[in-house]
Specification:
With 230 residues, the protein is an alpha/beta fold. The chain contains eight helices and ten strands. GO terms for molecular function: ATP binding.
């Protein structure tokens, strides 16, 4: 599992995350919710090593990875899909995937096949430049590319932002399939209904602090919305 214990993170002299404790269960989905500016993305960037932890500890399956570089954490089993449907726009969808598959050695081909099984619509788009795909298609491509690293924990930052509803459902279904297959997922999301529907546990982050946590499920939506004043 992924654990962050007493984590403080910031930029320059500005502190953004203040003593946060979260835990991602082995094979489960954990959601972090909160308004813009709550510190959600900052927390994720610290988890994958893109920002240093000022104090506290980031652990992956019991190993302290707080001092490891991002590529070392990837090798330990972390994969990160940042906000914004990022891809290499001038490359085709196939080339975007192949870049990662080539680095996976002999497992690359089978992982690519599994990723395309998860998002079958991408099969028809492999020859199209990524920059010409819709936002939803680029998001699916970004998740598929992350899966080619063979992660144990997949971290998704706002995967439904700006995505058409039909693709949102496909992404939710994919998260469920991955979790059922034993992959742990850490999901940052402002869409409360989506987050609680996908997650077995959740945390609400406000001003860099956890203000509420509990078991996921659609029946929690009214209480969480009230707590977030949505």
């Amino acid at each position: 599992m992924l654990q962050m214990t007493g984590v403080h993170v910031g930029y320059g002299r500005t502190s953004v995350v203040h003593g946060v404790d979260i835990e991602v269960a082995d094979g489960g989905v954990t959601a972090i919710m909160g308004h813009n500016g709550a510190g959600k993305t900052t927390l994720l960037r610290a988890a994958v090593g893109l920002l240093p932890v000022r104090s506290g500890r980031v652990s992956l399956y019991g190993e302290d990875v707080s001092k490891l570089r991002p590529h070392q954490r990837v090798r330990r089993g972390l994969a990160y899909v940042p906000q914004g449907q990022q891809s290499f726009g001038q490359l085709t969808a196939r080339e975007n995937l192949q870049l990662v598959a080539d680095g996976a050695g002999s497992a690359g081909s089978s992982r690519m096949a599994d990723a395309l099984d998860l998002f079958p619509a991408l099969r028809e788009l492999l020859g199209r430049r990524a920059g010409l795909l819709s936002g939803g298609q680029r998001q699916q491509l970004a998740i598929a590319r992350a899966l080619l690293t063979g992660p144990r924990v997949l971290i998704l930052d706002e995967p439904t932002e700006g995505i058409q509803p039909s693709v949102v459902q496909e992404i939710e279904d994919a998260i469920g399939t991955l979790s059922a297959g034993g992959l742990s997922v850490l999901l940052v999301e402002q869409h409360v209904g989506f987050a609680l529907g996908a997650a077995g546990q959740y945390y609400v982050l406000e001003s860099g602090r956890v203000t509420r946590s509990g078991a996921g499920g659609a029946d929690q939506e009214a209480d969480v919305r009230a707590a977030m004043a949505l």
